[in-house]
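Re: duplicated header lines in exported structure tokens

Our pipeline writes sequence and tokens for each protein into one text file. With two proteins the header for the second block appears twice in some exports. Here is an export where it did not happen, for reference. First protein block:
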Amino acid sequence: MPVLGLLVPALIAVAPAQEARRHFLAFFEWDSTTLSPEAAEIVDYAAEEMLKNPALKATLSGHTDRTGTTDYNIAKSQRMADAVASYLVIRGVARERITVIALGDTRPRVETGPDIREPLNRRVEIDLTGD
């Protein structure tokens, strides 16, 4: 019994500190570039992380489902990522800390055929990098 008493504090003492989240997904409704309340909550959390750590930079990757043409989806993914960037700026993050990438339907989370409305594919991925 005394052995357990000695091991538990040692295990707790060496446990690593929990790191801040660095990857977020903000999902969008079909054919929309407006942040839903749920998506805004996720972007709020990313903004808080960036404001706590001024060394962090955000890469925003816009993605769409396979409805619409390739050109339309690239443009829509750009508008979705721009909406997230604008929201981060409104929350106090400097625009210079944000990079926007439009990927259209080239990197789906869920593989589908053409013209399939897949909610998990309509997203902006927010990746925070830095110290």
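Second protein block, exported in the same file:
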Amino acid sequence: MIRPLVLHALAGTLLMFCSVTAVSAEEKLVSYTSMSLDLALSAAKSAMRSCRDQGYQVSVAVIEKGGATQVVLRDQLAGIFTPDVAIRKARTALSFQTNTSNLVEPTMNGKPASGLRNFPDAMFVGGGVRVEAAGLIVGAIGVSGAPGPDIDEACAKAGIDSISDVLDF
């Protein structure tokens, strides 16, 4: 580990002297908990089933903790853009560590965070929900295609509820 000892400015140049100390293997490696493919698929299927039961054809995306797409399901009559929107909703929920419905109002025009709406691929509309296990965010699920973002979010939450026995270990 590099630790700064002295910062010194000399003629417009910043000099920094550092010491190097030993670091244990535990500090060099990073580990985290994420959903297995089977668990992610189960949540996605349950989210889709919840929307189908209400008569809606949607797409569902599950994103793992690192931001990679694990599962994308598109119902037969879901709109052509719904898979992309579902992925963007899930990634936004994961990146901002909150459900996308919580980001709608703070990012509206005239609000201090409105500039976030210009961030590429972010989606500030309901339907993206983070997935937590034992207080840790382990991924996110996004749903797109129902007639309103509140329904998308309810279907995403239904998918998470269906795997809650595993998440609440």
